[in-house]
Automatic annotation (TrEMBL):
Organism this protein belongs to: Cellulomonas chengniuliangii
SMART domains referenced in this protein's UniProt entry, alphabetically: HTH_MARR
InterPro entries in UniProt: HTH_MarR-typ, MarR/SlyA-like, WH-like_DNA-bd_sf, WH_DNA-bd_sf
UniProt domain HTH marR-type: residue ranges: 4-141
Name this protein carries in UniProt: MarR family transcriptional regulator
SUPFAM superfamilies assigned to the protein according to its UniProt record, in alphabetical order: Winged helix' DNA-binding domain
Database matches in Pfam families: MarR (PF01047)
Length: 149
């Protein structure tokens, strides 16, 4: 059984639109709850993945200027979310790392609480829930067939 190309394109476009809406809602919730900007969250994420890195590397990874990075990091240091320390090999190099508190804030910020998805699902009509369930089960079936080899 094959899906109609037009229907598949429409489904993929709807998925992209839904993702954009969910990201926008999530960022709004993050900024109102934590008062962090999207750039500050990005810095925390980079440091969580990269460990202790020079500020210049953070700027490169985020594709922003070093001055922009300094401004973002200053705010995060002031909140106790990021730490600065001199490099072991070159004391002129300032290494940035996420603090334990920063890890907690990032975890609370990025991990979507169950209630977030539940609130959306509870607003669907019974027919929409049924259709979504059929679609998700179909995707699970196809994904599991792919894993079976």
């Amino acid at each position: 059984m094959t899906t109609q190309p037009g229907a598949l394109d429409e489904l993929l476009a709807a998925r992209d639109e839904l993702e954009d809406l969910l990201v926008a809602q999530r960022l709004h919730a993050i900024s109102s709850r934590t008062h962090l900007t999207a750039q500050q969250v990005r810095v925390l994420a980079v440091l969580q993945v990269s460990g202790a890195v020079p500020a210049g590397e953070v700027a490169r990874l985020l594709d922003v200027t070093p001055a922009t990075t300094t401004g973002i990091v200053d705010g995060l240091v002031g909140l106790g979310l990021v730490a600065r320390r001199a490099g072991a090999d070159d004391r002129r190099v300032r290494l940035l790392s996420i603090t334990e508190h920063g890890q907690e804030v990032l975890r609370d910020t990025v991990v979507m609480p169950d209630s977030f998805g539940r609130e959306l699902l509870e607003r669907l009509t019974p027919d929409e829930v049924s259709g979504l369930l059929v679609g998700i089960r179909g995707m699970m079936r196809v994904a599991s067939e792919g894993c079976a080899g």
